[in-house]
Amino acid sequence: MAIDSVREWIEVLERAGELVRVRAEVDPLLEIAAITDRVSKSAGPGGRVGEGAGNKAILFEKVKGSAMPVLINAFGSRRRCGLSLGVERMEEHAERLEALLEQSPPEGLLDKLRMIPKLAALGKVFPKHVSKARCQEVVWRGDEVDLGRIPVLTTWPQDGGPFVTFPLCVTQDPVSGRRNLGTYRLQVFSRNETGFHTHRHKDARRHLDKTAGRLPVAVVIGADPATCFASVVPAPPDIDELLIAGFLRQKPVPLVKCLTVPLEVPATAEIVLEGWVDTDPASYRREGPFGDHTGFYSLADDYPVFTVDCVTMRRDPVYHTTLVGRPPQEDCWMTWAIERLLLPVLRKQFPEILDYRMPFEGVAHNLMYVKIQKAYPGHAQKIMNAIWGLGQAMFTKVIVVVDQDVDIHDDAEVAWKVLNHIDPQRDLQFTMGPVETLDHASRAACYGSKVGIDATRKWPEEGFQRDWPDEIVMSDDMVAQVERRWAEFGLDS
Fold first, then answer.
1. Bridge-partner residues for 369, per DSSP?
2. Residue burial 110-127, b: 16+ Cβ < 10 Å; e: rest
3. R_g over Cα of the chain
4. Which of 8, 349, 365, 458 could be a cystine partner for 464, CB 3.0 to 4.6 Å?
């Protein structure tokens, strides 16, 4: 069942035992982040960091300097990702997507009749327009605008200031008119100014580059969870993320017109900032440093300035935010959910891919495991190059391709088999290309090297003429015999 607002989201998480209310006063300057970091890294079974019972969503009810409570870590576990997006398992959305992707053109009347429910379901993904919205119950204009009344967090000691870390930034292509919803951090500079941290490979940056003068921007803080999640999905350029939100919700996202800019925003939002970004590089301002999802500070640099002319909000709004830093954090679980959601899309284009995974320590763009059904010589290299040609996947620094018998969700097994299977000089393929803006080790900003590791079994056609050994596995009969006699051996502690 779709969750329509932050209020409902809090209720769903609380009923499921996945939310804790903190009633003691807390400081948005570092203290909330320190508490959340400790909660996010709660250890679970086997010492798995981030999977402990203490890892909960948190509602800080009394925040120093503001009347607004703060919701954080709402997506911060496998279970909360599912609850937030209305499913028991994230794979349920992937299965729905796979069913849509597998549709063939109907050939007869019966096929056409069978298509009707699916077409009706597709009709639910498009946003709907409403004339009134609760996100406009309270309005600040002109001198009333004061971002200092919003409990924006400063999360790490060397941060350049407080940052809005889960803003849903709405922009529109000035040529095509197509909307984009993206998450770009906003450093608060003054009562009505923030930085606008969009990278050169992002849609909002393309919109800025096409604009002469000022680009209208609306920033949503605290939307329904499907819309929040859709804002971070690496969709192809010019795909409206609100369609993705509608697919996940299985009903439309209601939109309302902004009061001062020619844009629309989700009607159930908690807070909306309306304003303009000056596209003249002479107006750029130094932004950062910022403790980022890599676990390192992204360095200070010059970025456009977002000037806020109007703030609208619900009465008694909740400030929704997230903490990023050394994994695991909430963003790691969102990356996992995106990975599961997009597997059918990847498999549709490359059927030989059986599964893929981006380990948390790879911070989404440094490491990817890919399991394939190898069918011909050079197949691993084909997959590496294909992934480097796919949208945001072009930033992947290290791609490891393995055979179908490798459990890529077991890091110990991956390390064991990969290190046994490779000849480094032969099996490492280096290439140059675009890299993530946040890659501080690359030889130049946004440009550097990447490596693909072919850890598949080598074929004679690939120049391998030696025998390939079998993996050591005890016989089933002996395993069963030892199991039957185990009590005789007195080895249980």
1. 357, 400
2. eeeeeeeeeeeeeeebeb
3. 25
4. 458
Give the pLDDT of residue 466. Answer: 94
For residue 244, what are the CA distances in angstroms to 71, 234, 298? 23, 11, 29
pLDDT band at 116 (very low <50, low <70, confident <90, very high): very low
Taking the C-alpha atoms of residue 377 and residue 369, their distance in angstroms, rounded to an integer, is 19
CA–CA dist 59, 2 (Å, integer): 21
Question: b or e along 261-275 (b: 16 or more beta carbons within 10 Å of the residue's beta carbon)?
Answer: bebbbbbbbbbbbbb
Q: What is the 3-state secondary structure (H, E, C) of 413-471?
A: HHHHHHHHHCCHHHHEEEEEEECCCCCCCCCECCEEEEEEEECCCCCHHHCCCCCCCCC
Residue keyed to tokens 């480094």: 424
* Residue 412, C-beta contacts closer than 8 angstroms, at least 6 positions apart: none
470 given a catalytic annotation: no
Q: Which domains does the chain have, with CATH numbers?
A: 6-101 (no CATH), 120-320 (2.30.110.10), 350-462 (3.40.1670.10)
Rounded to whole angstroms, how far apart are CA atoms 55 and 42? 6
Distance CA 165, CA 154 (A): 10
At residue 121, the pLDDT reads 60
C-alpha angle 378-352-344 in degrees, rounded to nearest 5: 140
Parallel, antiparallel or unpaired: strands 168-172 and 193-195: unpaired
Q: Which tens digit of pLDDT belongs to each residue from 196-241? A: 999 888 888 999 999 999 999 999 999 999 999 999 999 887 789 9
Return the amino acid letter for 15. R
Strand order of the β-sheet with 19-22 is 19-22, 57-60, 70-72, 319-320
Q: Is the pTM of this model over 0.90?
A: yes
Catalytic residue among 159, 203, 292, 355: 292
DSSP of 19-49: EEEE-S-B-TBTHHHHHHHHHHT-B-GGG-B
Please give the single-letter amino acid code of residue 232: V
Dihedral sign, CA of 311, 313, 317, 318?
Answer: negative
**How many H-runs (helices) and E-runs (strands) does the chain carry?**
13, 25
Strand partners, 357: 369
Residue 298's beta-bridge partner residues?
A: 290
- d(CA 154, CA 163) in angstroms, rounded, equals 6
Nearest alpha carbon to residue 386 among 341, 417, 356, 407: 356
- What is the H or E stretch that residue 290 is in? strand 290-291
The kind and range of the H/E element at 183 are strand 179-183
54, two tokens: 């203490």
